[in-house]
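Let us work through a complete example step by step.
Step 1: write down the sequence.
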Amino acid sequence: MPITPELFDPIEEAKAEIGRLLFYDPILSGNRNISCGTCHHHDHFGSDGLSLGIGEGGVGVGPKRVAVPGENAIKKRVPRHAPALWNIGAKEFQVFFHDGRVSASTDYEVGINSPAEEFLPEGLESLLAAQAIFPMTSQFEMAGNPKENEVAGAIHDRIDQAWPIIAKRVRIIPDYADGLSKAFGVDQMEISIVEIGNALAAFMAAEWRSFDSPFDLYLAGKGGMDEAQIRGMELFYGKANCASCHSGPFQTDHKFHAIGLPAFGPGRTRMFDPVPRDVGRMSESSELEDAYRFRTPSLRNVELTAPYGHNGAYPTLEGIIRHHLDPVTARETWTRDMANLPSVPWLEVIDFAIQQDRREMARQAAVLDIAPVELADEEVADLIAFLRALTGGESRFGRLGRPETVPSGLAVD
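Step 2: predict the structure and record it as tokens.
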């Protein structure tokens, strides 16, 4: 099915423009030292090029980012790979984060299930807008350590207590007050995290739209793909069984599957879980049947957004493809040097600690939703060729791009 503009809501330029500035402004972080764009940067096509990144407390962008030692040094890496943002403004995207912890729901009056539950503010225009305000509340992404700043302190009282603090920071900056007031038709003194989230969502939805790839040209009857890519497409939608999960116009079914990736990193543990593991969807649902299952990513521009997997376990397309074809063997033969983890000496002791837990490794190995598929090396090469045919043309660089300066006057990564 071809992607068409009708699959998206119309772009609202004024909202997207102000959202672009906010996206790259560290004013939204607890210590005013990291922005959304730090981990979802244009230079890295909406991601950061790392397996598990360094969020708050780091310096630099992408693979060059390093952690800063000292009293306020980070206490863990960001637990999951920073996903790329391609086409997340499309109407069919109704589940966000690797574990789906933001989604549509009738359980709460605002119609959205989220970590804030009934405390999520009303007025957010989309699920994407709801998603946008949660990295600000994450200690290891944007908030910072407890006692470092008023935002981090407020979060430890209740997750929603930080948002008014951030909103006040923004609305006392004249350019933001004027821009948000005009874009959303609200009084400047009424600007809240709702307008900030809606602006961020408008920018992300408008910025990373990509459907000008060779594959799109091929679907439109305009050529676009060579013979190897066509053979790879036939394998993708046929013998290789990729489309059983990577289906639809954006190559995702938006569901959760266990593919048995190698385990490492701090994990995204539940509040009562002392083990550095990642139970995936179960961390949101608390249902045992969801253990170790993660949301299927879209494959648009996948060539540009390595490494791959919810923890960035594989640095190449060939690696992640061969894992899908034979997950048991791939897991057994995976080596630690495949993970792109910036050096953080005081954290390295726990990076691979979970692999020493024999029982946990057995639990993870027992949950697998994909069956082995035998392909020749030539067929794997054709699959790789097809995935490269999903790379956009000019769209891969974004639409508005990274701003040189932001209204807060803080440095732009």
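Step 3: interpret the result. DSSP finds 16 helices and seven strands in the chain.
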